[in-house]
Amino acid sequence: MTVIDTQPPKANLNPLNWLKKNLFNNWYNTILTIISLLFIVWIFYSFINWAIPPAECLTKDNAPRICANYADWNAVTENMRLFFVGYYPEELLWRTWASFKIIVALSGFSWGIFSASSTLFNRATIIVLSVLGASYLTILFSVGFESQQYLVATLFIFAITTLIGKKLGTNLPDLKLWLPLVWFFNFFLVLWLLQGGLFLESVGLDNLSGIILTFLAAIVSIVLCFPFGILLALGRQSHLPIIRWLSTIYIEIIRGLPLIGILFMAQVMLPLVLPPDLRLSRVVRAIAGFTIFASAYLAENVRGGLQSVPRGQSEAAKALGLNGPLVLALIVLPQALRAVIPSIVGQFISLFKDTSLLAIVGLVDLLGISQSILLGNPEYNGRSVEIYLFVGFIYWICCYSMSLASRNLEK
Amino acid sequence: MKKIKLLTKYSSLLLIIGVLTFLGACRSRETQSTNSPSTVQTNNSRLNIIKERGKLICGVSGKLPGFSFVNQNGEYSGLDVDICRAVAAALFDDPTKVEFRNVSIQERFNALKTGEIDLLSRNATWTLSRDTDVGLEFAPVVFYDGQGMMVAKDSGISKLEDLRGRTICVKTGTTTLQNLADKMRKIDVAYTPLAIGDEDQLYNAFLQGRCQAITSDRSQLVGRRSNFPDPEDSVILDLILSKEPLAPAVVPGDPQWIDAVRWTVFALIQAEEFEITSENLGSFASTTDPTIKRFLGQEGSLGKNMGLTNDFAARIVKHVGNYGEIYDRNIGKPFDLDRNLNQTWSDGGLLYSPPFR
After folding, report:
1. Using one digit for the tens of pLDDT, what is the confidence trace for A153-182?
2. Which of B60, B128, B130, B232 suits a disulfide with B68, CB 3.0-4.6 Å?
3. Residue B197 has pLDDT above 80, yes or no
4. What residues does B152 pair with on adjacent strands?
């Protein structure tokens, strides 16, 4: 008997066939399809109808009464500045622009360097760029002329630094390894620009608000909770009983507490127990709360990864003469972390979204600023849908970029 | 091997940076602790700490139209905010020397007690338990508010008894719900409360007719009504369910500081009584009236004796105006709310300043 090596038959799926096969293959599926389609169209139609107000509602003054039923995107566009930089003093706004440009330039540079050996555009980067580009354009058309100029200039900086990065990356392949360090120093540079001190007029950490605060809290907590989480995971696996017990106790206690409780502790209770002349900034206390909370969860994720690395790996490494820390750093951790990237990134994404709890403890993050626009400014009372949609969109962009980045990392 | 080298390079660099930042943090903490506000000591009043610091830290809500909110340019405005500015004007002759800090309802009193803010101007109601139990020291009332009731004009409701069997919208998590229940139980009227936490949803429910009446502080009702599609279709009933005197507060046990705040508020009221405004202040430079001369610091040493300058009242009026100007700017004009109790006693209101002498 001969085995005939045949390929499975090629599915002949032109769009019509696909529809037939997947949506209209029998009578009840056909009915379901039609009902769902009608429902989707209805939702979509009413949303568009609401989102695009008729022409007579676009004038600001004495709009007819019917306009209350339509979206008023002025509530978003007129408050753009509040969303992004919050209460940052007007005469110091150049510092936020400078920080933004530095970050954009460095992102372009890193992107260039990382794609030095391949092409600049692959599927993931195209998705990220088109999402970012679309939102960039929307924002570009809804801000004042001065900001438009800055934004266009920033776009140019991005393009130029990307090309430079690509050029340099091809010539100096080692540069890739030093990028994290550049970002590390860049963080302090931007922080210095934003909060002042040392030759610059001081603004103070506590007066940062809007997206700046959301990003600051999220990034610092993410970066800090990572090493703590790994240490806790290692501690829980340790052979030394006291370290193991302490790590376990810490993880179990923190995981048993709600995040909002920890934040309230940090904001309200901590100042009561600290000596009166020791004042920690409110932002620092909040970040400490986030870090304490997230590192406990991260530790459990990492522990899962550590347990998935076969014992033979570390034994082989020891047999080769590597010492303890090196076994961990070169053999075990890289494999363990790679295995749990999806859950770690999931943790980071939820930590990013958790920063919206800052609004409850009196700090004015992205959500806090939208609440203060909604509740505070009588002009925008009742425009919650527009504003919350916009805020949700920003959160979505950030989280989706993070998840795309993680998928790239996994490869 | 290369990897190991890189690893050691990185870890040593990180170690150095860590040590440097630690040293830096220690140094900055030392410098901070010298001027950071500590618990009040008898010889070291909060007043002196603020003067040394060069700016006042004021806790506000940031989410209350007419009292404190931030406009599109990121500037604070409102009545609560102007009280802070008045204190700053009295201290520094510069109303911009205030740092505003948003404090939430839950942490407002703690922020004051821990010294994070110098002055709480966050329309807090002055009550006995807050004065004693919570431990606050209240300055004079800056706004006499009261819980009111708004109904649709064509509903024919004119008094609480008309609400029998109706639905009333009320915000959760505040004392308004309790006040309403108390009042309705007293007059024995059964009603259905519709409690909603979100402010926007609450007023939308009223507009959509899900409830026949809505209750909240009168200033809030008026503020919201001005944003309705048809403000004239709703009326605010002429009744008060509870007294809500809103006053700034400081920590107790610091007579010098509370006096400064107290007399700043009184100066605003007294200036209106004297009919001194930010515009006509200059014309009082050559006044012959001895009481006004004393008030503006041209004579005597009223300000000096309490740790301020003699012309502190003149500074306040110059920079933020008198009480009437503040009221008109923040509440009167935008919301069309008449002053009612919030007029000087000579006009039939409750604002009464002890004499400046």
Report:
1. 888 898 888 888 888 877 877 777 788 888
2. B60
3. no
4. B234
Among the partner-chain residues B63, B115, B203, the one whose CB lies closest to the CB of A276 is B115
Q: Which domain holds residue B166?
A: 146-243
3-state secondary structure of B312: helix
Name B171's bridge partners: B196
* Shortest CA gap A292–chain B (Å): 19
B263 domain-assigned: no
Contact with chain B for residue A206, Cβ under 8 A: yes
Q: From the CA of A79, how many Å to the nearest CA of chain B?
A: 5
Residue A37 zone, left/alpha/beta (φ > 0; ψ -120 to 50; rest): alpha
Domain architecture of chain A: domains with CATH: 211-411 (1.10.3720.10)
Given an 8 Å threshold on Cβ–Cβ distance, is B72 in contact with A79? yes
Give me B173's structure tokens: 């998590």
Residue with tokens 């939308």: B204
Give the whole-angstrom CA distance, residue A185 versus residue B96: 34
Report whether pLDDT(A73) > 90.
no
Residue B225 lies in a domain: yes
Cβ-proximal residues to A27 (8 Å cutoff; 6+ apart), any chain: none
Does residue B204 form part of some domain? Answer: yes
pLDDT tens, residue by residue, A239-291: 899 999 999 999 999 999 999 999 988 887 777 777 766 677 888 889 999 99
The mean per-residue pLDDT over the stretch A43-55 comes to 86
pLDDT at position B38, please? 42
- How far apart, in Å, are the Cα atoms of B218 and each of A105, A383, B335, B337? 52, 22, 11, 9
Rounded CA separation B122/B63 (Å) = 10
Give me the CATH number covering residue B157.
3.40.190.10
Structure-token pair, residue A18: 């696909």
Q: Which residues on chain B are in Cβ contact (under 8 Å) with A376?
A: 61-65, 68-70
Judge whether A374 is closer than 8 Å to chain B, CB to CB: yes
Minimal-distance CA residue of chain A relative to B221: A378
- Complex ipTM, two decimals? 0.71
**Domain for residue B202, yes or no?**
yes
Cα distance between residue B329 and residue B66, in whole Å: 9
Beta bridge partners of B247: B124
Using alpha carbons only, what angle is made at residue A399 by residues A397 and A405, rounded to the nearest 5 degrees? Answer: 100
Closest Cα to residue B191, out of B151, B153, B229, B146? B151
The reply to whether A90 touches chain B by the CB within 8 Å rule is yes
Q: Who's near A364: CB < 8 A, 6+ residues apart?
A: A86, A87, A209, A210, A213, A358, A372, B62, B102
φ/ψ (deg, to 5) at B168: -120, 125
Look at B227 and A378 and tell me if their CB atoms are within 8 Å. yes
Residues from chain A that touch B199, judged by Cβ atoms under 8 A, are 374-375
Q: Please list the residues that pair with B99 across neighbouring strands.
A: B57
d(C-alpha B67, C-alpha B13), whole Å: 51
pLDDT for B222-241, tens place per residue? 878 877 777 888 888 888 88
Nearest to B179 by CA among B243, B242, B125, B238: B242
Total domains in chain B come to: 1
Query: For A344-349, which contacts have Cβ atoms below 8 Å and span 24 or more sequence positions?
Result: A344/A298, A344/A301, A344/A302, A344/A406, A345/A402, A345/A403, A345/A405, A345/A406, A345/A409, A347/A294, A347/A297, A347/A298, A347/A301, A348/A222, A348/A402, A349/A399, A349/A402, A349/A403
Output the pTM of the full model: 0.80
